Amino acid sequence: MTDNRSLYEQVILDHNKHPRNFHAMDSPSAKIEGYNPLCGDQLTLFLKFDGDTISDISFQGVGCAISKSAASVMTEVLKGKTKEEARVLFDKFHAMITSDTDAPLDEVALGKLRVFGGVREFPVRIKCATLSWHALLSALNGEGEKISTESPGE
Amino acid sequence: VKTEVLHKSINKPHSILDVEHIRRDFPILDQKIHGKPLVYLDNAATSQKPQRVIDAITNYYSGQNANIHRGVHHLSQLATDLYERSRLRIGAFFGASCGKDIIFTRGTTEAVNLVAHSWGRPNLKPGDVVLISHMEHHSNIVPWQMACEATGATLKVIPITDAGELDMDAFDAMLDSRVKMVSVVHVSNALGTVNPVAEFIQKAHAVGAKVLIDGAQSVPHIRVNVRELDCDFYACSAHKIYGPTGIGVLYGKEELLEAMPPYQGGGDMILSVSFEKTTYNNLPHKFEAGTPHIAGGIAFGAAIDYLDAVGIDAVAAHEHALMDYAHARLADVKGLKLIGTAKEKAGAISFVMDTAHPHDIGQILDGEGVAIRAGHHCAQPVMQRYGIPATARISFAMYNTCAEIDTAVEALHRVNKVFG
Hints:
The complex is a heterodimer.
Chain A: H1 10-17, E1 30-36, E2 41-50, E3 53-62, H2 65-78, H3 83-97, H4 107-110, H5 126-140, E4 147-148
Parallel strand pairs in A: 1-4
Antiparallel strand pairs in A: 1-2, 2-3
Helix pairs in contact in A: 1-2, 2-5, 3-5
Chain B: H1 19-24, E1 32-33, E2 36-37, E3 39-40, H2 51-64, H3 74-93, E4 102-105, H4 108-123, E5 129-133, H5 142-151, E6 154-158, H6 168-174, E7 179-185, H7 197-206, E8 210-214, H8 226-229, E9 233-237, E10 248-252, H9 254-259, E11 270-273, E12 278-280, H10 294-310, H11 312-330, E13 336-339, E14 348-353, H12 358-367, E15 370-371, E16 373-375, H13 380-386, E17 391-395, H14 402-419
Parallel strand pairs in B: 3-15, 5-6, 5-7, 7-8, 8-9
Antiparallel strand pairs in B: 1-2, 4-10, 9-10, 11-12, 13-14, 14-17, 16-17
Helix pairs in contact in B: 2-10, 3-10, 4-5, 11-14, 12-14
C-alpha cells in the first residue's frame, strides 16, 4: 500500500467537497438506491432517458470521499451518453479499479475516470468507488430496486 | 459537545505505569507503517499480545501439545493440567468460585449464544420479556432475537440518552415480573460508556429476572468481580485482554449452569453414550463439546498473568489519564464532534468530523501510521440513534502514550487540511 496522495487526487477532493449533479430529480425515468452496509455509504441515483440517451443524471446520499466523488464524476461523464456507451464505461471503470496496481491505465478511454486509478492500491475502498456504478448498471438493466454491495447472507 | 475537560490543563499527565518498559513486552509495536512509527489505537477491536502470551502458544505447540481429558500419557496429562490451571487462573481473576462456573467458549459472541440457547430456549415463553439496551453490540442483539423468535418471548430495548448513557428511568419503568432476562453491555464498544451494571443487576433480581453482562470491552479496563456484582452470567473474550483470538469465557452461576441443557453435542461433553441414552458430563465440560482451543486457553491464562502483574487498577488509572488527555486534545480539532459523552467512559472515544467521513479519517490516519477503527462497530442501532452512518474510534490499551495521542491529533488536523 502506498501513500494516501495516490488515493486522494485533487479532482476527487474537489468533487467530494463540491459534488456535481447532487440533487433529487423530478419524474426520473429510473431511480435506484445503492447501499454499502460495510461502510454505511448510501446513495440514490436518478436517471432521465431520452430514447436511448441519458439526457439527465443526478444523485443524493451520504458516503465517504471516494464514493461521493465517484458518483459525482460518473454523473458528469455520463450525461448525454447512450446506454450502450454507459455500459462500456462501466466495464472500463470496473476493469481499471480491479486491475493489478502495476497494470497500465488506458488513459484515453478512461478520460476523467482515470483519477480513480489510485483506488486499486486500497482494496477496501474499491466498493466505495464502484457503488454508484453498480447502481447505474442496475438502472440500465431495469432493476428499479435497492441494490447492495453485499448479497444477503454473504 | 464541549465538556468540562476543555478547561483542564493539557499538560501530559505523568503515567502511573512504566509504559516504555511495557512497550518492550509487545514486539509488534516496534515497527513502522508507511515509514512512520506504528501508533496502535484500535484496541477495542483487538489488543496486541505481550511476548509472554506469544511464548505460551509457542511453548505449547513446541513442547506440550496433546489432546486433553483423555490421555494416559505424559503429554496429555501435562496439556490437561495447563489448560485446567488456566481455567482456575481466569476464574480467580474474575472472582469466580471454582472451575465449574467458567466455561471456555470461542469468545463473547459464543458465550452470549450459549446462554440465549441453553438458558433462553427452556426458560422463555410467550408473554415473557428479554431486555437489552440500545447500545448493544450485534452479538448481544441477534442471539436474543433468535431466542425470542423460537420461544414467543418479546425483546424490548432500554433507550439511551443523547450523552450515550442508559436511561435509568425508562429501565425502571420497563421492569416488571414479565422480564425474565436483562442482557446488557458493561462498557459500550461504540460509545465508551461504562454502565452501572451493579444497579442493573440489583433491580433486575428484585423482579426475579436473570442478568447477563457482556464484558467484552470492560475486562481490559475495569476490575470485574462476578460474585460481588452478583450477575448470573458474564461473558468476555481473551483477545481484547492481551490474549489470543478464538477463545473466551462464560461465567455462570453454578446452579443455573447445572440446570441448563448442553449447547452443543459431541465428544468431551458426555460421560457415557449409547444409542439409547447419553449421560452428559459434569460442569464445566457439559458445555465444551469437541477438542477445544487448548493453546488459546493456556495463553489466555498467560495474558491474565501478565495483566495481573502490571495491575488492572494501575492500567485503569493510566488509561483514564489517556482518555482525559485525548478529550482535551480532541477539543482543539475543528469540526470534531464526540459521539458518546457519558460521565463515565472507558477504553474508547468515538467521534465524527464535519469535513470527512470516518473512512476517510481512518485512511488519512493510516497514512501517518495511526491505526484506528472507522465504521458502525457492529452496533448499527447506535449509529441510527445518532443519525450517522459510522464513527471514527480511538481506543486505548496499557501500552499507549500521550505522545501517541499527539500523533493521532496532528493527523486529525491533517484530515481537516486535506478535506476542508
